[in-house]
Amino acid sequence: MLACLALVAALSVNTTTDEIPALTAEIEAQARELAIETRLTPELLTQIDHFSNDTARLSRLLQGAGVRQDMPCLFRGIAKDARARATEFIAASNQTERDAAFMNLRVLMDDAALMAPLAATAAQDAAQDAQGDFAQR
Fold this sequence. Notes:
Layout: H1 2-35, H2 42-64, H3 70-91, H4 95-136
Helix pairs in contact: 1-2, 1-4, 2-3, 3-4
């Protein structure tokens, strides 16, 4: 019975980690696109919202895959910060404030683009660790 439960747990981790590489690649691409934006448009705010939703989803997937707390927490923070950048754009009442919001967005997106591939690697490592634990039982 315990072996069966361990097998189910290992399979669910694999299913979760199977989604992560594609999602991290998508997040990296989104971050690179958002980092070069220079105009405030409704589409930009929508893109930021999609990015935030994707990074929050990645955080949950990483946690479900057994990745240590730092990486899921980091992407949860990126999701929250992306929403804050959108709020910053909405609140900007002059060009100086908009320029500052764009700079803050660029910094966040540069960080996200750098961290996304590391998240995929962390998930792969966690999956290998989980398989090793299963094999030892």
